[in-house]
Write a structure and sequence with these properties.
Hydroxymethylglutaryl-CoA synthase; Peroxisomal Thiolase, Chain A, domain 1; hydroxymethylglutaryl-CoA synthase activity; alpha+beta; three-stranded mixed sheet; 2 domains; binds acetoacetyl-coenzyme A; 24% strand; HMG_CoA_synt_C_dom
Length: 397
């Protein structure tokens, strides 16, 4: 019985910042950001969006009918930028999505890796319960602070995936290799809204874990690089995927090396215009690869390398299924990216500092006025503000 991804969708908020503008404002060479780091644009998160709204706005694209909603037996919400220290983002999202009460709903965290853990839990659950479906949401905001080295690698968004025995996109193969190591490269203390990071150490750990897992994968499966059509990588910034892939390119001919660099460019395309979205990043890279790469067909094997600082990583493969491109075509990611409003650096800094982090602040977010003016899309979930220290979510009419 084949278990895999029936549907996949992406959402990112409607504001963006050009990395050339950011480089100029910070006194950096634009080429450092666009070539050295490999980021061209990043999504800017307004104060009426958070991991719940983004997750709901991604998942609602997959759940179009009452029957779709009724079929979901479990909601797994992966995030490292959750909205509450106790209550799961899944609980807020469940009601906003109109899911029934008789489901399991939970949040899981391990930096950028948790989305993959959720995916594997979903696969195992559906394998045991073939008539059921699991909704996986991977939603995050990458926030390092103004004028920090990490600023160029900010961003945010959510990827939602429906896992079932009707894998219209890809079968999740039973070939995972994984590794967990206690590392001090990236963390966010409970009293901080920004991540603390040793970016260079993190990069080294990412590269090392990729090699550990690649070698283990080859040993376990007997498969080699030419057995893959392409790879999706966790992309905190797009150069990271290149650093990982270049370590194994000498295993193939120069013609094949050029081929894999082309696949890498396809897998980086969307991420280059969104920035980091932590847990969702590797699955946005997957969507990018499946949409941008040429000549893929049902039966092709695609590798997925998931990494979360701190640190945990997993490498596995997907086998594409008939008609996967139709599912991807339904998601107009490019249209969503193009429709974002471009902000100046001054506007971005204002939005960055306007987040409603104080739960005693009862003032409304900008989303309330925008919804009243009809400037939010009908059906869009937004954070309206705090009431008695509780988060209020609404849906635009
Ligand atoms: N033209 C072209 N390239 C240039 C250039 C120019 N004018 N100037 C510099 N560069 C290149 C550098 O040579 C370097 O390339 P290599 O990495 O290939 O050597 C690249 O630009 C970056 O330069 P620096 O290393 O000097 O940049 P930095 O010190 O400002 O740090 C960073 C970069 C570590 C990514 C930093 O932005 C950061 O800390 N980001 C946040 C953390 C992060 O993303 N870590 C990555 C792995 S962690 C992870 O995966 C989990 C997660 O999601 C966070």
């Amino acid at each position: 019985m084949a278990v895999g991804i029936e549907g996949i969708s992406f959402y990112t908020p409607g504001y963006s910042l050009d990395m050339v503008d950011l480089a100029n404002a910070r006194g950096e060479e634009p080429d450092k950001f666009t070539i050295g780091i490999g980021q061209s644009v990043q999504t800017v998160i307004p104060n009426f969006e958070d991991v719940v709204t983004m997750g709901v706005n991604a998942a609602s694209k997959l759940l179009k009918s009452d029957a779709d909603r009724a079929a979901v037996e479990m909601l797994l919400f992966a995030s490292e930028s959750g909205v509450d220290n106790s209550k799961s983002g899944a609980m807020f999202a469940k009601d906003q999505l109109g899911l029934r009460d008789s489901i399991r709903a939970i949040e899981m965290k391990q930096a950028c890796y948790a989305g993959t853990f959720a995916l594997m839990q979903a696969k195992d659950f559906v394998t045991l319960h073939p008539d059921k479906k699991v909704l996986v949401i991977a939603s995050d905001i990458a926030r390092y602070g103004l004028k920090t080295p990490g600023e160029v690698t900010q961003g945010g968004g959510a990827v939602a995936m429906l896992i079932s025995t009707d894998p219209k996109v890809a079968v999740i193969n039973d070939d995972s290799v994984y590794e967990s190591k206690d590392e001090k490269d990236f963390w966010r203390p409970i009293d901080s809204d920004i991540a603390l990071v040793d970016g260079h150490l993190s990069t080294d750990i990412y590269k090392e874990m990729f090699m550990d897992l690649w070698n283990a994968y080859k040993k376990n499966t007997g498969l080699h690089l030419p057995d893959f059509k392409g790879f999706a990588f966790h992309l905190p910034y797009t150069k990271m995927g290149k650093k990982a892939l270049e370590q194994i390119l000498d295993e193939v001919t120069s013609t094949k090396q050029a081929y894999f660099m082309e696949q890498l460019a396809a897998s980086q395309f969307y991420n280059r215009y969104v920035g980091n979205l932590y847990t969702g990043s590797v699955y946005l890279s997957l969507m990018s690869l499946l949409k941008e790469a040429k000549g893929y067909q049902a039966g092709d094997r695609v590798g997925v390398f998931s990494f979360g600082s701190g640190a945990e990583a997993e490498l596995f493969s997907l086998t594409l299924t008939q008609g996967y491109e139709d599912v991807l075509a339904e998601q107009d990611v490019q249209g969503m990216l193009d429709a974002r409003m471009k902000l100046s650096v001054t506007e971005y800094e204002k939005v960055f500092e306007s987040q409603k982090l104080d739960s005693s602040d009862d003032s409304e977010t900008e989303g309330v006025a925008l919804a009243a003016e009809g400037k939010l899309a009908a059906g869009q979930c937004y954070f309206a503000g705090w009431k008695d220290h509780y988060r209020l979510y609404k849906t635009a009419k």
